[in-house]
Amino acid sequence: MTSGDPKIAKALTHFETLSSLASSLNTASDELTKVVINLDEALKKLNIGLTVWVPFRFREDPDSPECYDRDQIGYTKVQGTWGLALSRIWGDHVRDEHYEDGPWLFKDAPRELRIECLDEIAGVIEELAKSATATTKKVQEKTKQVRELAAAMDQAANANIPASLRAYQSAIAATGKLSDMKGSK
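RE: above sequence
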């Protein structure tokens, strides 16, 4: 092929078009990433510490219903940093094969995934709220159970302590010092 070849001329024309668009594409992508980073910062201030995922794109093979392939956006910890993240998971339920690309923090994910997931960001926040509600209730219930267990154990431990030792422990607790116990025999 020579530079006079129509295929080369066509490729050069497309390359020139691509060259003029690359800067605009990168600027738009950088602006999107900045906006999501601002959202991440707002979420980090809440210190939620919960992971949620929302699928946003599915690829199916009608001939293999046992296979799955989906992209998802979520909020999770990636390499020590909490934030909006993306991943792709796929596999075959029958063969018990499961694979994953990612997760990547939003800014590090492939551009295509960053663009495709945008409609589901509100869904991630909704899922975080649901998860926070459920987790709060669970922690409160478990705290109640552990408090009851601790009280029962404390009562059982006190029941096995002789009365004279209980009086001694009460005196220490009341004064806070062993030195105050001189002469209280």
